[in-house]
Write a structure and sequence with these properties.
7 strands; Rossmann fold; 7-stranded mixed sheet; 24% strand; alpha/beta
């Protein structure tokens, strides 16, 4: 986890989460394995419940997901905040991941996703993508999430481990829908996920 990713996540916390200070906040960190650093200290606040999830056991992993595109360990609409950094570039079918992000967020829930726009290949175990703002907007669109903010961090920090990544940051919020509309979207996204998962076989 490079320094600029930590800085961008701290900026997100300070800008968007002030209203949650002192209140319960259920947080999921997708791809949480600690590699030099992690996001857990950023969200170490009273009443904030941080859960690190990943596909394999490791440091800073509280729960292991058995399937990369079907997070049965996380119930529908149970997450106030989902964060993820330096993960999407390693996800072969990130559009299915977008549907799962939408599924687990509560109505009104928020997500912050950070992924590089540049930098060398770093397979873990694969390295598939780089993201610009338009790509992140497409991520939000396929998941029917409201794009709150998106930008690429083109500024150099002077940190040699950070500056060649130029992370793109996406902040999205799940709309609060009527019960009928929410059910329709949930059914549609379930069908989308199943169809796209079958197409991978």
């Amino acid at each position: 986890m490079h320094l600029s990713s930590l800085i961008n996540m701290e900026r997100f916390r300070d800008k968007y989460l002030g209203e949650y200070l002192g209140k319960r906040l259920d947080i999921v960190d997708l791809g949480s394995t600690e590699m030099g650093a992690c996001y857990r200290p950023i969200f170490d606040k009273p009443h904030w419940n941080y859960l690190g999830v990943d596909l394999t056991p490791g440091p800073n992993v509280d729960r292991v997901l058995q399937r990369p595109y079907d997070w049965r360990e996380i119930p529908n609409g149970s997450v106030d905040l989902l964060v993820s950094g330096q993960v999407l570039e390693h996800v072969e079918f990130f559009w299915i991941t977008a549907l799962e992000v939408s599924r687990v967020l509560k109505p009104g829930g928020i997500a912050c996703l950070i992924a590089p726009s540049s930098g060398p290949e770093h397979r873990y175990p694969v390295d598939c993508w780089r993201f610009y703002p338009d790509g992140m907007r497409a991520f939000a669109k396929v998941a029917r999430l409201h794009c709150v903010e998106v930008y690429t961090d083109w500024e150099n920090s002077g940190d040699p481990g950070s500056d060649f990544w130029h992370d793109t940051v996406l902040v999205v919020r799940k709309p609060i829908r009527s019960p009928i509309r929410a059910l329709a979207v949930r059914i549609l996204q379930s069908v989308q996920r199943r169809v796209m998962s079958v197409a991978m076989l």
